[in-house]
Structure to design on (242 residues):
């Protein structure tokens, strides 16, 4: 009888100890999971922006100036009279290119964009129906200063080479016409990327050249010239990366 009581006591004691050990292990596991969850919650997730081909559309405003200059030569002395007119109009276009990032912060892109605008040349005979095409090749350096999952913010700066064509001129327009001119400029702006594929940008392009539109000798000793200059383009870009 004593042996039976002893074995029963040992059995009960073993069960109690086993239950206590199981509870201790469970509490320890829950504590570890809580710590890991807290660490994961506090962890900042950076991501490298997606590399690839992109296309986009743009719309904005172009700030232009046209200058008319008349030179009159009398007795080997030249007198010059010049006047300026500001022509600020809507500009829109498309762009296509490729971008690549070395890490979460630094990258570059190369791209081509084609823009259309129609300045008001109504006061210039022969130019009242003219419009302008800009075709621009650019190289930009990219810097992302804010990187989180599915969103980033950054800036860009770069250089460009561009052509500027004034088309649909009156064929009867006299003088030496120059429909197309070329030059260089710089690009500056703010950019963002959402969900890796969608981008929004505020872009500023500053050309460094003027377009010699027309040189016209009216009579002996007198010449008139027209110059067109885009002072800057301010545009909003939407970009999709494949």
């Amino acid at each position: 009888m004593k042996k039976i009581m002893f074995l029963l006591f040992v059995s009960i004691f073993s069960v109690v100890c086993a239950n206590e050990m199981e509870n201790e292990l469970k509490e320890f596991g829950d504590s570890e999971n809580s710590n890991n969850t807290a660490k994961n919650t506090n962890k900042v997730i950076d991501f490298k922006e997606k590399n690839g081909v992109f296309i986009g559309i743009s719309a904005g405003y172009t700030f232009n100036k046209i200058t008319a200059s008349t030179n009159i030569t009398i007795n080997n002395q030249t007198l010059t009279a010049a006047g300026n007119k500001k022509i600020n109009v809507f500009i829109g276009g498309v762009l296509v290119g490729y971008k690549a990032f070395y890490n979460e912060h630094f990258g570059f892109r190369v791209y081509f964009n084609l823009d259309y605008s129609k300045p008001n040349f109504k006061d210039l005979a022969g130019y009242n129906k003219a419009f302008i095409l800009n075709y621009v090749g650019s190289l930009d350096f990219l810097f992302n200063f804010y990187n989180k999952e599915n969103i980033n913010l950054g800036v860009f700066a770069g250089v460009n080479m561009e052509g500027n064509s004034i088309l649909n001129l009156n064929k009867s327009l006299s003088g030496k016409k120059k429909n197309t001119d070329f030059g260089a400029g710089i690009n500056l702006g703010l950019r963002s990327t959402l969900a890796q594929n969608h981008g929004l940008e505020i872009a500023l392009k500053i050309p460094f050249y003027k377009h010699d539109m027309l040189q016209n000798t009216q009579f002996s000793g007198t010449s008139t010239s027209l110059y067109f200059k885009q002072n800057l383009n301010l545009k909003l870009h939407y970009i999709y990366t494949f």
Q: What stands out?
A: The beta strands are 52-74, 77-101, 106-117, 131-148, 151-167, 176-177, 180-194, 198-207, 211-219, 222-241.
